[in-house]
Amino acid sequence: MTAGEIRLVFLTEANRASVASLELAPEQRDFVASNAESLDEADLDEDARPRVVMAGDRVVGFLMYDAPLDDDEARIYRFMIDRASQGKGYGKAALREVLGEIGGLGHIRHVSICYEPENEAARQLYRAAGFVEEGLDEDGEMIADLALAASTGR
Ligand SMILES: CC(C)(COP(=O)(O)OP(=O)(O)OC[C@H]1O[C@@H](n2cnc3c(N)ncnc32)[C@H](O)[C@@H]1OP(=O)(O)O)[C@@H](O)C(=O)NCCC(=O)NCCS
């Protein structure tokens, strides 16, 4: 399976259990809320846009973002690839897919993302996609911003 075959699908009753069973390495578990928590949140928050990362027919990751219609900023606030599928370019491909989806919404000009400052994999991944670090928020998390028009030519 190559990274070119990565796609995002909606969260459904059929793929929910697979998302819940995705795992991170122990040292990564503080970097992102558990998928069980995110699935609950997806049910409760009508602005949440949960997406399941597929490699062919296999569920390999999960992400969630919001893109309120009355704002020009989207926020990707969950992003994970199962530990067994990391390091194969899937995260990069999934990020490309979600940025394409967000750009296609039409009303979004900025995408923000936040991560723990010590999360080097996240930093590298987002920097390569054009995100620029803006500094720490009040919880000590790094905020990074991507200006869509500049990076995608939209
Ligand atoms: C961050 C994460 C989503 C990356 O997914 P992935 O599929 O492993 O990433 P990829 O294989 O597509 O790699 C993309 C880039 O990320 C960076 N990267 C990935 N793993 C890395 C590591 N262990 N150390 C440093 N950089 C790393 C590299 O820049 C890489 O690009 P390159 O291969 O061209 O150098 C994944 O590691 C993960 O789920 N981590 C735990 C949860 C998390 O931290 N989520 C982000 C919170 S906002």
TrEMBL record:
<feature type="domain" description="N-acetyltransferase">
    <location>
        <begin position="6"/>
        <end position="153"/>
    </location>
</feature>
<dbReference type="InterPro" id="IPR016181">
    <property type="entry name" value="Acyl_CoA_acyltransferase"/>
</dbReference>
<dbReference type="InterPro" id="IPR027455">
    <property type="entry name" value="Sper_AcTfrase_N"/>
</dbReference>
<dbReference type="Pfam" id="PF00583">
    <property type="entry name" value="Acetyltransf_1"/>
</dbReference>
<dbReference type="InterPro" id="IPR000182">
    <property type="entry name" value="GNAT_dom"/>
</dbReference>
<protein>
    <submittedName>
        <fullName>GNAT family N-acetyltransferase</fullName>
    </submittedName>
</protein>
<dbReference type="InterPro" id="IPR050276">
    <property type="entry name" value="MshD_Acetyltransferase"/>
</dbReference>
